[in-house]
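Re: the multi-chain job from yesterday

Posting the exact lines I submitted so nobody has to dig through the queue logs.
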Amino acid sequence: MGKITLNKVNKTFGSTEVIPGIDLEIEDGEFVVFVGPSGCGKSTLLRLIAGLEDVTSGTIVIDGTDVTDAAPARRGLAMVFQSYALYPHMTVRQNIAFPLKMAKAEKSVIDAKVNEAARVLNLTDYMERRPGQLSGGQRQRVAIGRAIVREPEAFLFDEPLSNLDAALRGTMRLEISELHNQLGTTMIYVTHDQIEAMTMADKIVVLNRGNIEQVGTPLELYRTPRNLFVAGFIGSPR
Ligand code: ADP
Ligand code: MG
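And the result, structure tokens for all chains:
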């Protein structure tokens, strides 16, 4: 299960209120995209959900459990970053297996889960290579593989494709959508790219200076943007 609820979540750095107070419900299995201009608080919101930042006030509930004060590892989430964060000296297989090794899983379990992740991500032929011998898209798939083996309740992606060229971004968009179809796991995907938001999301959350301007399906936002900010950002005709 991967239902995530934010209640009046506020984040203030020093005297700067970055997230003034957000209420949001993410249903189990949903593909939710946080979209908005650079600096609007997308990464901060994702890091609050992941537990990489502490909320200033408000609560975060995952599957009925208040995790507001829980350590990141206790939240059952897996985060995928734009900068891959792979270990250069390890092979693809070792990189993907790493979280399971840390959790002291049995070798047979590790092998089975790593091989399954490799199959889903089309990495089977690259397992003994090191990250330096891979393309950008392959590296991003390894980073996703490392998240998959943990079998998280939800995947959190922070602009995972922004280091890739336009053609590869298109391919990876489809691959991540396909992965969501296969796994059925909740995914929260942060981007400043309207095309990614419109093509990948079940539900889009439009952020502006830490506030939610509108939540809706891509079609709802396109047809009935609540204001000019949403209309301008989504590129709809209003
Ligand atoms: P986005 O991911 O949408 O580009 P961020 O969440 O990274 O935006 O940042 C939102 C705002 O919060 C920015 O103004 C940024 O400067 C500020 N911010 C982010 N992290 C910190 C921090 N650790 N200390 C102070 N300000 C921060
Ligand atoms: Mg960001």
